[in-house]
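Quick check before the chapter quiz. The format below is the same one you will see on the exam, so make sure you can read both the input and the output lines.
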Amino acid sequence: MLVAPQEFKGSLTAAEAAEAIGAGVRLALPGVEVDLLPLSDGGPGFVDAMEAALGGTLQTSPAGDPLGRQVAARWLLAPDGTAYVEAAQANGLLHLWPDELAPLEASTHGVGELLLAAAIEGAARIVVGVGGSATTDGGIGMAQALGARLAFSPGWTLLRGGGSLPALESIRWTRPELLAGIPITVATDVTNPLHGPSGAAAVFAPQKGASEGEVELLERGLKRFTEVVERDLGVRLGDLAGGGAAGGLAAGMYAFLGATIESGFDVVAHATGFGERLSRADLVITGEGSFDDQSRQGKTTGRVIATAEAADIPWLVLAGVVDDEATNVRSLTQIAGPGRDPMSDAAALLAELAAAAVADA
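Here is the expected output.
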């Protein structure tokens, strides 16, 4: 049996969720062989999933959070020399309280600091998971941390993040020698473009605290960024699939660093041997904090389901909350009961839910 969940946001890491589900399965089915495989699509939990799969050395480097406060960010240097960086360790929503959300000022500067840290430690390749961001700055903070010089219109009140992009006048850029020759991959779970109706500002900025007016300002900024990048760097961004990931950080890494953009799930699945491990299973259990229609649209849980169905392998989804409960989709709210909080008591509840689900399967 394969247990392959992603994180349960706000309560359990992917590894903790896998352990809890595994414990419940073993309780219900003593002696069953359980293969624990924590997964990620590039967002929070990316480094933990890669470390569990590949080993290597976990590193801790100082970096600025979305508002510039220093945090200790973790990243992985794998045995083959690849550095796996979780951008959200620097620019993630996880660093901000709800009343601290600042969509115009939130910056990716700390992500650039992590790229430099990985290069200093001798990374031969860098893979950056970009989910869970608090930023919509097109990656200009990251670029400035790496030495890019940006000029803005006189008289504009400059902000740290995407709020300044409408006033962007020019970019001067030379790739740092430290990063010369190091291939960089962006791992993401979205294919949204940088701007437009399905772009970074329109779709994702409201989730980062942006008002309607702020969304319009950020959209203007990302369009201006696209124009200046094409003129000054000779790179087209407007129709770049996935460029809108992490508020345009993916587009910025493509423009400034020549990064490739790949499916975060595919990156993790390849590194962990997901396909082979699934082929040996008679049942796969996956899960996440909230299972809804978006889960089936390229997210980790949806990709696990689709792969299992293609291989004719039965599956179960265990989630904190679900839009539509079905025989093979269960939620913690089913068993929480009075006095038990699905967030704070998630591990115990998840084990109980797993035990009940496999007993019924």
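If your answer matched, good. The two ends are 12 Å apart (CA to CA).
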